[in-house]
C-alpha cells in the first residue's frame, strides 16, 4: 500500500509543478526573447528523442556509412527539406530503412 502512496504522491507533485506554469503564470509577462525561444521547444525535444536512435543504434556512437538508421534519417531529412510533407518524410525514411536493412541482410 505504501508504494501506491509514493506513486500517487510523486505523480501529484509532478503534475502540480508542471501545471503551475500554465495555471499561475501569465504568458504575456514573460520576456519577448523567452516567448520566442519557446517556439523551438517541440523541435528540440523531437531531435533529442530521434538523434540517439539514429546515431547510436547499438548503444555506441556509430556515424559510419554502414549504419542504415543514420542513412535512412539523412534520406528522410532530405525529403523533408524538399517536399515539406510529414507523411512523405516518414514514408521515405521507412522505405530507405527497410531497403538498407534488406541489403545489409
What is the element layout, followed by pairings?
Blueprint: H1 2-23, H2 32-38, H3 41-55, H4 68-83, H5 86-104
Helix pairs in contact: 4-5
Query: Count of DSSP helices?
Result: 5
User: Total number of β-strand segments?
Assistant: 0
Average pLDDT value?
A: 92
Query: Strand portion, in percent?
Result: under 5%
- Count of discrete domains: 1
Structural class: mainly alpha
Q: How would you describe the shape?
A: flat
Global Rg: 20 Å
Low-confidence stretches: none
Question: What is the string of SSEs from the N terminus onward?
Answer: HHHHH
Quick summary:
With 105 residues, this protein is mainly α. Helix content is 75%, strand content 0%. Helix 4 runs antiparallel to helix 5.
Q: Can you describe what's shown?
A:
The chain is mainly α. It has one domain (2-104). The chain contains 5 helices and no strands. It has helices at 2-23, 32-38, 41-55, 68-83, 86-104. Helix 4 packs antiparallel against helix 5. The relative contact order is 0.06.
Features:
105 residues; mainly alpha; 5 helices; flat
Amino acid at each position: 500500500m505504501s508504494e501506491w502512496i509514493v506513486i500517487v504522491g510523486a505523480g501529484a507533485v509532478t503534475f502540480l509543478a508542471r501545471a503551475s506554469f500554465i495555471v499561475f503564470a501569465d504568458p504575456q509577462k514573460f520576456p519577448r526573447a523567452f516567448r520566442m525561444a519557446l517556439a523551438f521547444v517541440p523541435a528540440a525535444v523531437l531531435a533529442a528523442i530521434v538523434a540517439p536512435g539514429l546515431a547510436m543504434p547499438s548503444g555506441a556512437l556509430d556515424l559510419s556509412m554502414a549504419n542504415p538508421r543514420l542513412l535512412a534519417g539523412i534520406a528522410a531529412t532530405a525529403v523533408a527539406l524538399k517536399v515539406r510533407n510529414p507523411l512523405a518524410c516518414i514514408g521515405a525514411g521507412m522505405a530507405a530503412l527497410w531497403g538498407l536493412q534488406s541489403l545489409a541482410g
